[in-house]
Amino acid sequence: MGSVDGGTLLEWIDKVAYAAAAQWSGRYCVTAYVGNIHLERPLAVGELVELHANLVHTGRTSMHILVTVYSTDPTRVKPVQSAQCLTILVAVDDERRPVMVTPWTPTAALEVQRNRQARDRIAVRAQIEAAMAGQRYTSAGTAASTTLRFLAAPTDINWGGRVHGGRIMRWIDEAAYVCGAGWARQQVLTSYFGGIRFYRPIMIGHVVEVTARLLHTGPRSMHMSVHMTATATDSDEPDLAAHGLAVVVALEEDGRARPVRQWVPVSAEDRALDAHARHLIELRSVVEPFTAADAVPLDAEPRHFRLPAPR
Question: What is the pLDDT, as a whole number, of residue 305?
């Protein structure tokens, strides 16, 4: 479609957030939660993309990292903000047990404001997690769904020996894409991710199943709940590894979202999940966006390829 898919963007976000958390803690870190990611505009192929990660809050063992995505045509002078995302990582020891991190204290005015906004999100995040965990997904549901099934390969593993969070989020995006494209009967693009929670690590050789299920349709959007399970090859019991929400849209040729076929709930479970999706929309609406910087950081301006100005 000529633009960067959501899974690739999520992998980039996971990498830069990990780098920031590891630098602060001096430890190996694991991704625990990825919050609201709203892609303000598609990233076109050929654009210069830069991601900046800033610590905005520390818990006892966790670090809340705000990742800001900037992008621009390389011929332009100023990049623009394309997305922001809050990622929570936990520092662990060699036995993968959580360890305490050095507390961080904001000093600059922007840091103080973002720290407050991060702390305000804790209660809302707990409500979103509880709402998502309390839903039932059974064969009584009649909505469109898609399941991808494969083995976790050595190329999916990070230096910690487990499938890294960015790859898991890519799989979530791919399942949502297949389900959304099947419903819309055309190519789609993910415009929003939310409430991505990681429960268990995935190892090489695990049988991975990713199921995306349509919950709700808006005038131009399709809301998908995506569950991922992992099963060891010597076990018959799948374990929930990750769960998240994705919103996909079908695009016109000019890049604007187009109307989509509306889904009508049929069963009691359908109606409950449709109401659940609407509830999540309400919860997200009360979340205060993180304050943007007054200007793009100086090191975000793509100067390294520019010719010197004529004398």
Answer: 45
